[in-house]
Design goal:
Blueprint (H helix, E strand, L loop, with lengths): L4 H11 L5 H13 L1 H20 L4 H9 L5 H25 L6 H69 L11 E5 L12 E2 L7 E7 L8 E6 L5 E8 L7 E7 L7 E9 L2 E9 L1
Parallel strand pairs: 1-3, 2-8
Antiparallel strand pairs: 3-6, 4-5, 4-7, 7-8
Helix pairs in contact: 1-3, 3-5, 5-6
């Protein structure tokens, strides 16, 4: 496994709790999605444990290891078993130096017990690593579930807003579109992404002077809005700014000169408010 020096230093700082929050979040996200990256982190963890036991950590790194790194149960377990293994190897090395003094039969028992201890340490270490991987996988699944729950909550909120918006539009809709005495036609519009294939139809009438547009804006509230009328080619043919919503900020009402839609075809009204843009289509026949 090849680890670039710059990446190794960055991961050491992450494990020692020395990174800023954006850098920390970026590494946490990568740990959840990249198995090779997670294995690289495990290698760096082992190096920090070895450097700590060998006394190779600088003063700040040693304090960070004690105050942050070894606060993790997984890292404390690694430190504990690394110490046990070092003691066993040191004892074994010491016994090898005086091997000539040990009777033959006890030495056989010694080697059997040594092998058993090494096997036990290997099995225990393997179990720790496996448990740590299971824990990491569990944390990854929990994070995914939380993200899915948050998305579901947003969709439910959006659906509730849409239902309230539809009720408001229905309340504002007085029935069939007719030309009023002031030569205006009330036109209630829905955004294109929610129109379900139903696009309002406006029939040309020489007596028509104004299109009175009604749009519910309760799901993207803004102190003011910009409205523009666009033809089938997306060309802006009319616009107005600083439009104020009515009915406690729930409904936007404004008028467009009917002469601007005198030709049959596709049109749309574009509303911009608080950085959000919605398009509301209608047809003229």
């Amino acid at each position: 496994m090849n680890i670039k020096p710059a990446d190794e230093e960055l991961l050491r700082q992450y494990l020692l709790g020395m990174l800023s929050e954006p850098e920390w979040d970026a590494i946490e996200q990568k740990l959840l999605t990249d198995d090779d990256f997670a294995r690289t982190v495990e290698v760096i963890e082992d190096e920090i444990v070895d450097d700590y036991l060998d006394g190779k950590l600088s003063g700040p790194d040693k304090r960070a290891a004690e105050d942050h790194f070894f606060q993790s149960p997984e890292h404390r377990s690694k430190l504990h078993f690394a110490r046990l293994l070092r003691r066993h190897l040191k004892k074994e090395d010491s016994l090898n130096h005086v091997r000539f003094m040990v009777p033959r039969v006890p030495q056989a028992f010694y080697w059997a017990s040594s092998i058993a201890i090494v096997l036990l340490l290997s099995i225990t270490t393997g179990l720790l690593i496996y448990t740590a991987k299971l824990n990491r996988d569990l944390q990854s699944q929990i994070a995914k579930n939380r993200s899915a729950e948050a998305e579901l909550t947003r969709e439910r909120t959006r659906a509730s807003q849409l239902e309230a918006q539809l009720r408001l539009l229905q309340e504002q809709n007085d029935g069939p579109q007719t030309v009023a005495q002031d030569s205006s036609l009330k036109l209630t519009l829905l955004p294109v992404e929610r129109s379900l294939g139903t696009v309002p139809l406006v029939k040309r009438d020489p007596a028509l002077k104004w299109l009175e547009i009604h749009i519910a804006v309760m799901d993207f509230a803004s102190p003011s809005y910009k409205a523009s009328l666009r033809d089938a080619n997306g060309r802006e043919v009319w616009s107005d700014t600083n439009l104020k919503p009515k009915f406690s900020g729930k409904l936007l009402v404004f008028k467009i000169p009917a002469q601007l839609v005198s030709a049959a075809g596709e049109y749309s009204v574009v509303i911009i408010g608080s950085g959000v843009t919605h398009r509301y289509p209608f047809r003229v026949s």
